[in-house]
Each structure stands twice: as structure tokens, then as C-alpha cells.
Amino acid sequence: MLLEYPTVERELFELNTQDPTVKPLATSFNSTEDHLNPDISDESVLGFRVGNLRFLLAANIFCEIVDQNKVSPLPNVQPWFSGVLNLRGDIVPIIDLHILLADGSTPLKNRHLLAIDKGKKTVAFWIDGYPQMLSPHFTSASAPDDLPDVLRQAITDYSRQDQHLWLTLSLDKLFKALSVHTVQDKD
């Protein structure tokens, strides 16, 4: 026996902000939304640390700290390619810049996985500590001499703030530089 339900015509609901009883609710909702999604200026940057180096990304790029227990290693890849993880159905590559920089000095308990971007463009890096929002007050700096070539190709700017050198990282350039060096020879 097939049940039939009566069809109901639906009207689109629009919030009437002119109604004095509705207006405080609308204002309250907007202020809550603003609190949950703070207005990040285009000039703000997100900073994270890997070993002795500090990297900058635009603050409007989606980033999150993810559970490091989900990492699946892959065979026959370079040591800096830690593996992949499944993040909401997307396979995310994990890059260990510590190994790429030959700086394995950070204890594993202080490291976190920082997933950057959304969907198929997501990549994760092992970082030291937690990322931080930084004010845009930087002075220009020159490139350090000891940067590996692969990383040097991915840096778009060198800046200084509070005695620290910050490297502005281009993810697209980093992927292009790393894609050439992903598979390890089986000698």
C-alpha cells in the first residue's frame, strides 16, 4: 500500500527587519555570526614554525589542525613525504618540512598536523606548536643562505618581525618543486 502525503506549498521566509519585535533578534544573530567568523583583514597573516624557520600564509586560507593518528605511510616515496590521510573524503598528502630541511630536532610530541586549504587542494604539514595570527607589520629581509633549493623556489617573500625571519610560502610553487622529487628510486 502506497501512502500519499498532501503537498504543501511553501513560501520563502524572509526576515522582516522593519518589524520592531524582529529587529533585535536579527541584530543579535548578526553579532553572533560576526563573533564566530571574525573579520580577518586581507593584510593579516597566519604564521607557523618548522624547526628554526617560520612560514607565512595569507590569513584567508582555510587551515585546521588534524588528528595525526590518521596518517597512512606510502612505500617508495621520499622520506619527507610522510604519507596521506583521509580528511572528509579527500586524500591529503602530508609533507614533513623538518626532513626536507634536514632539521629533525623537534620532539614528536610538540608537532601537529596543519591541513591547509579545502577539498582536493588540501595539503598537510608537520609543524611545531600551533599556528598564530600575526599583524602585518614586517620589514623586508634577505633570503638565508642555507635554504634547500626546493624550498627556495616556493618562497615569494622574506620578512622580519620581532627579530624573527618569516618566509612567505606559495603552496602552488612548493607543489611544483616537490612533484619532481616525490618518488624514491628502489636502488
TrEMBL record:
<feature type="domain" description="CheW-like">
    <location>
        <begin position="42"/>
        <end position="180"/>
    </location>
</feature>
<dbReference type="GO" id="GO:0006935">
    <property type="term" value="P:chemotaxis"/>
</dbReference>
<protein>
    <recommendedName>
        <fullName>CheW-like domain-containing protein</fullName>
    </recommendedName>
</protein>
<dbReference type="InterPro" id="IPR002545">
    <property type="entry name" value="CheW-lke_dom"/>
</dbReference>
<dbReference type="GO" id="GO:0007165">
    <property type="term" value="P:signal transduction"/>
</dbReference>
<dbReference type="Pfam" id="PF01584">
    <property type="entry name" value="CheW"/>
</dbReference>
<dbReference type="GO" id="GO:0005829">
    <property type="term" value="C:cytosol"/>
</dbReference>
<dbReference type="InterPro" id="IPR039315">
    <property type="entry name" value="CheW"/>
</dbReference>
<dbReference type="InterPro" id="IPR036061">
    <property type="entry name" value="CheW-like_dom_sf"/>
</dbReference>
